[in-house]
Amino acid sequence: MRTKITQHIAIIIAMGFLFNFQSYAQENDAENYRIRFGLSTKKQPDNSRVLEASFIGTHKKDRKDRVPVYNADINFYNVTEDGDLLLGTVKTDQEGTAQLTMPGNQKYITNEEGYINFKAVFDGTDDLDGEESELAVKDILMELNLEVIDSVKTVIINAFTLDSINTKIPVEDAAIKVAIGGYLSNMPIQEGTIEGGEFQFKFPENISGDKNGNIVVIASILDSDEFGNVVQKKNINWGVNKKIEIESHKLWSSAAPIWMYIVLSILLIGVWANYVYSIINLMNIRKEGKELDLKIKK
Description:
Blueprint: H1 2-27, E1 33-43, E2 49-59, E3 66-68, E4 73-80, E5 83-91, E6 97-102, E7 115-122, E8 131-138, E9 140-149, E10 152-162, E11 168-170, E12 174-180, E13 187-194, E14 198-202, E15 215-224, E16 228-236, H2 258-297
Parallel strand pairs: 1-16
Antiparallel strand pairs: 1-2, 2-3, 2-6, 4-5, 4-7, 7-8, 9-10, 10-11, 10-14, 12-13, 12-15, 15-16
Signal peptide: 1-25
Protein name: DUF916 domain-containing protein
Keywords: Membrane, Signal, Transmembrane, Transmembrane helix
């Protein structure tokens, strides 16, 4: 009887395990994920252009569950009226992104309004449907000039596009951000709008630089519907070099705050008090041991 009961319990446990496994597999099936396929572009300081496709699967219920699509072939095109011109093919990395960098002298075909039409395409596999994303931007030329005008440090940004006969057309109403490059993040110093192809402002004082006073000034147009992302930067010796005098080989220094003296003193007193307490206890133990030996001998 016990054997049959044991067999029934084992069967129930096995069925439960199988059911949970099937539920888990169904929950993590590709059908439960919404594919997000996007295309963005960034023009770099050397005038090269980066085309980036993002290929991510997001769980329909748990949106925090994001799965990058790895090792997928992404084709990048310059879309024209006569057909799609292949610019290159790149595989997605472990983050689900594929980046194609085009040189600064690359010639693109534009439409009548002067926009370059880009397209990223994933042809699909047996498990994943094909995906594509398009993006249209104007090719902007941005110049960052750092000049001293009447003894005033001045940041001057010029931006323009070129028409079909290479005539410069000043950029209008483009949001611009200027920052100082840092190790962990950039420090914003000015925001504004490019009008008539120009934006300028007085460089702020007391900006810390490296040991030689060098800083990196970065001008950015971000997430523009017309131009995408555009970055320009330049190195210059406009930073303040702050030297800190350090008294070496000294435990006590006039530069240290009072609370540091107090904490250090308490710690040192505590350590030495522990040494003294331990030595006294050892001496007492030794003394009691001798007295115990004398009692035993008697």
